[in-house]
Write a structure and sequence with these properties.
There is one protein chain. By secondary structure, the chain is mainly alpha-helical. Helix content is about 75%, strand content about 0%. The chain has six helices and no strands.
């Protein structure tokens, strides 16, 4: 089940294409980074029940669709910072939702608090502070292996 779920998510993300954007290489690298981070976050996805997985997949499809629209919008932008400012929040939200799914059943307050804080940073009015969000996501990535060694939720 785990491999099927990971392959399913992989194929959805692999369908993202920045096209002939002047920033195509940079955007493809961001998409590949997202794929790797989703694989990491989905490390125990077989423990997620079908209902929660279906809800997650629906949200993933929505998020990927929104990212795809944004990739189309930035296709002709030439300002690297503007492209990053418009695309990064979508990439970060997709990763964050995967971590939220992974730790959702676990009573590990540090990881839950970090996910909540990152989510708040991504939905605030105004520009997303990428450095802040990345620090939070890095902390989540580091804290989750501890969660992974915890007994599986029953």
């Amino acid at each position: 089940m785990r491999e099927r779920r990971i392959e399913d998510v992989d194929s959805v993300v692999a369908g993202l294409d920045p096209g002939s954007s002047p920033h195509g290489r940079r955007l493809r690298a961001g998409i590949e980074t997202l794929r790797g981070r989703l694989r990491l976050a989905h490390g125990r996805c077989e423990q997620v029940d079908e209902r929660r997985w279906a809800d997650y997949r629906a949200a993933l499809d929505t998020g990927v669709g929104e990212l795809d629209v944004e990739l189309g919008r930035v296709a002709e932008h030439h300002d690297v910072e503007e492209v990053d400012e418009r695309v990064y929040p979508h990439l970060a939200r997709l990763e964050l939702e995967a971590w939220r799914l992974r730790i959702g059943e676990v009573e590990e307050s540090m990881s839950v608090d970090l996910v909540t804080y990152a989510h708040r940073e991504l939905v605030v009015e105004g520009p997303v502070r990428r450095e802040d969000v990345e620090r939070i996501l890095d902390a989540i990535r580091v804290s989750v292996p501890f969660v992974e060694t915890s007994p599986a939720p029953r």
